[in-house]
Amino acid sequence: MNSYPIHIKPFGKSAVLVEWPFEIDPKILDDILTFKDYLKLKGYSGEEWEIVAAYNSLALINNKKEIKFEEISVRLRELYDQREEGVKKEPRHWRLPVCYDLEFGIDLEELSQQIGKTIEQIITLHTSVTYTVYGIGFLPGFLYLGGIPKDLETPRKASPRLHVRKGSVGLARKQTGIYPQDCPGGWNIIGNCPVPIFDAQKENPCFVRVGDTVSFYSITRAQFDLHTIQAEVGIDLLTKES
Asked: Which UniProt keywords apply (predicted)?
């Protein structure tokens, strides 16, 4: 098992943040998730503790009381050295449809000029790889997906839009992601996914978890309209592979 130099720091009065090297690396994420599940086995779970994993960090939040930082810092370092391999949940793989019609891919033409690729090449590149879910935020259900082809790496827009449509699929630097609801945003929008990523009415509002993998496949506008209707009436559009 790989080990990394971790840094533990206060994160408010009731939380601590454990940080790994600041890299987008699946091995680092795997170590974070292994440690997360090991902590749960050691009692950091239930109503008292909440653990949130992201690209290179793990936040431990106590929902009942303030914590003693020095005490928990020592304990976490002990547990990190003792962590066991193979306790974390196996990732699931999700195949999600995306319509790259220009009505949805509102930045496709500009992006095509910026990176010197045709729109068809951009779509082929975007659907050619498997992405890893490195984080979920800044909105509930917003997936931060790493593993984007280098040719698609592009900076965020200089001026964020005040309104980005729900389901919009965007690119920003080394990431791609899906907007789970209408909101402002500064990513380059290349398409739209008709599968609802977040539903507050469900017992499990977001079906994806950090560590899962995602791939995209292209659909036509007619297929998008059909999938949108199916989603509205509750038909499950998910394709999952273990």
From this structure: ATP-binding, Hydrolase, Nucleotide-binding
